[in-house]
């Protein structure tokens, strides 16, 4: 399929997803829509609430593209329960739009676990994928990204699953981030295969036998160092590492404040002009990995584009998530994943 | 046992341990010895090399306190193999000094895994301990520490082991850091017990049933936040988290440099006087958790004080490790652990 023959991109947004829904979801998505101008946007959720945000913010949006969904999944809903208890949630309806081909992508800043479950059951998995993965970029010392997968779609993954995380994420890095032959590392407590869990050595074996660019075991200090483009692990540890990394800017802010409060000399050292000159430096240095800017986390391996954002997503974060979905469609990410998995299956 | 009746503190240092051994180990330990003046110091390793460092640095040290050990464990030795292949290593000899009561503490900046193995087999475990733990302090936003255990003594720990990590480390925090009733958190991917591994929910159950101050599951962002005084986990994830955290200062340095190199405006923002004013702020803010200052990591649960330092330990780091060992002796840490474990065994 080429860009000439493929249908116009259509993206559905979960208008009810996130701590500031429906406002941020609706406003952010419509901003992306007017900026890019080349895709259809579906707003999924409670029609009256969506219309209310549109009118209060004087937005220009054709209400034919509002898709009503009666139920709302909140942050406290147990992910798997939502399938049964809330079959008409905005997440279920949004995923169904992708399933039926009406949309190519579905984006939500709602309950992450519920979005994983609704995407998998709503869109289905791509043939050959046993477990999808959430893949996240972290900043590194080389002014680039070290990607981490899985950051929490699943815990208790088996070697085959982690191998698939590496395969799926490598395609993302190649097609979307332009990294030709992504270096894949496996997180461990030492370089030798004798270190770590049996899970780790069994996974290393699978990765070594594949034609992925596996560079071996890497350690916790390799994430920031940028030793690998992609580091794979079970979703338990990936999720903890991601949340730890995301809390770093707040910690630094507090550390500087604590230091500054200790003496006048310290205060002057930090803020010679009355404001911290490196605050901006830090903010900009870390900004590309800022949740607002990364455009959410793709759930790779489902049969369609599924992007999950932070509950606290700003309108900018939502806008960037929608634009990320658009880019994945334009770059044929799902098609590329299917081709690669077919190739793998044939080799076996 | 009170301070009046107990014998004079004696500390053994692995003179051959660390990337800069024997220099840093010998110089750092002798500095601590002359500063504190109230303990005996044994230098364990190759006598001629130790004497060489003493004479070249014009140090004042009674050579009767050099304990000769023929063999040296290096960073590439497989930990468990060292017991059989290097029975006369400085680590084995040092641990034996504690076993026989000649020393109360043994300190090394050598191969961490080998030090864990040699301490366990050389000193033995305290009755009631199935697995010792390496416990590490990380800085937090409250200008204090969040301790993490286990950071790599063992991987693949069972609920009972992780419970013991919590018990042993709580005693450390109370007796050495003056935290009266340490709040214990269990690392997980969510607050609910239904999240995470079966290992996690089984461990939560043990912690909840105990009289430890268990505050429940905590997430990756709680480490810096300081939600808990102590966070427990398997050594696999603890080790990865510790190494990730330790690599943060280098990453920040690189991030500021990358930012600064992008434009002259950026450079001036970072260094209005030609040097970065917040560099010192950061250094001091993070310094208390700096490996040089924390005094190494105690291996808790072995029958004696065992402290393990970074391979790259400076003389200052070694000095602080020796002083940390002295403090643990003076505060009766091992006696307190034995009392607490006896109390636990009786309750069962």
Distance between the termini of chain A: 26 Å
According to CATH, what is the topology of the largest domain in chain A? Isopropylmalate Dehydrogenase
Tally of distinct domains of chain A: 2
Strand order of the largest sheet of chain A: 3-2-1-4-11-10-5-6-9-7-8
Low-confidence runs of at least 5 consecutive residues of chain A: none
The gross shape of chain A turns out to be: globular
**Rg of chain A, alpha carbons:** 21 Å
Key features?
eleven-stranded mixed sheet, 15 helices, Isopropylmalate Dehydrogenase, 15% strand, 348 residues, alpha/beta, homodimer, 2 domains
Describe the fold and architecture.
Two copies of one chain form a homodimer. In chain A, α6 crosses α15. Chain A has an eleven-stranded mixed sheet with strand order 3-2-1-4-11-10-5-6-9-7-8, with helices on both faces. Helix content of chain A is 47%, strand content 15%. The longest helix of chain A has 19 residues. The model of chain A has no long low-confidence stretch (mean pLDDT 92). The first copy, chain A, is α/β, with parallel strands linked by helices and 348 residues long. Chain A has two domains: 153 residues, Isopropylmalate Dehydrogenase; 161 residues, Isopropylmalate Dehydrogenase, CATH 3.40.718. The interface between A and B is large, with 57 and 57 residues.
Indicate the topology.
2 copies of one chain form a homodimer.
Chain A: E1 10-14, H1 23-36, E2 40-45, H2 47-56, E3 66-68, H3 81-85, H4 90-99, E4 105-108, H5 112-123, E5 133-139, E6 145-149, H6 159-177, E7 183-187, H7 198-209, E8 213-218, H8 222-225, E9 230-232, H9 235-246, H10 248-260, H11 264-270, H12 277-287, H13 291-294, E10 297-300, E11 305-308, H14 315-330, H15 333-347
Parallel strand pairs in A: 1-2, 1-4, 2-3, 4-11, 6-9, 7-8, 7-9
Antiparallel strand pairs in A: 5-6, 5-10, 10-11
Helix pairs in contact in A: 1-14, 4-5, 6-7, 6-15
């Amino acid at each position: 399929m080429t860009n000439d023959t493929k249908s116009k991109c259509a993206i559905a947004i979960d208008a009810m997803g996130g701590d500031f829904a429906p406002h941020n979801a609706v406003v952010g998505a419509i901003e992306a829509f007017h900026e890019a101008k080349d895709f259809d946007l579906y707003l999924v959720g409670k029609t009256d609430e969506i219309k209310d945000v549109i009118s209060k913010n004087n937005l220009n949006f054709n209400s034919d593209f509002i898709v009503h969904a009666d139920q709302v999944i909140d942050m406290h809903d147990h992910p798997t329960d939502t399938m049964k208890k809330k079959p008409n949630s905005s997440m279920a309806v949004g995923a169904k739009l992708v399933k039926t081909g009406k949309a190519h992508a579905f984006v939500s800043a709602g309950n992450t676990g519920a979005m994983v479950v609704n995407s998998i059951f709503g869109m289905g998995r791509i043939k050959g994928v046993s477990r999808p993965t959430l893949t996240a970029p972290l900043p590194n010392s080389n002014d680039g990204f070290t990607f981490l997968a899985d950051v929490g779609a699943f815990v208790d993954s088996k070697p085959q699953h982690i191998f698939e995380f590496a395969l799926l994420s490598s395609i993302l890095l190649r097609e979307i981030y332009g990294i030709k032959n992504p270096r894949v590392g496996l997180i461990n407590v030492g370089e030798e295969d004798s270190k770590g869990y049996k899970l780790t050595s069994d996974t290393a074996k699978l990765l070594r036998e594949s034609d992925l660019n596996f560079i071996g075991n890497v350690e916790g200090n390799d994430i920031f160092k940028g030793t690998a483009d992609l580091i794979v692990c079970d979703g338990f540890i990936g999720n903890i590492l991601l949340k730890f990394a995301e809390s770093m800017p707040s910690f630094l802010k507090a550390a500087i404040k604590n230091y500054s409060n200790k003496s006048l000399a310290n205060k002057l050292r930090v803020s010679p002009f009355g404001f911290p000159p490196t605050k901006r430096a830090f903010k900009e240095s870390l900004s590309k990995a800022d949740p607002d800017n990364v455009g959410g986390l793709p759930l790779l391996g489902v049969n369609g584009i599924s992007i999950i954002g932070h509950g606290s997503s700003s309108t900018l974060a939502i806008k960037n998530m929608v634009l990320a979905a658009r880019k994945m469609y334009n770059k044929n990410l799902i098609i590329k994943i299917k081709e690669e998995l077919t190739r793998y299956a044939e080799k076996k």
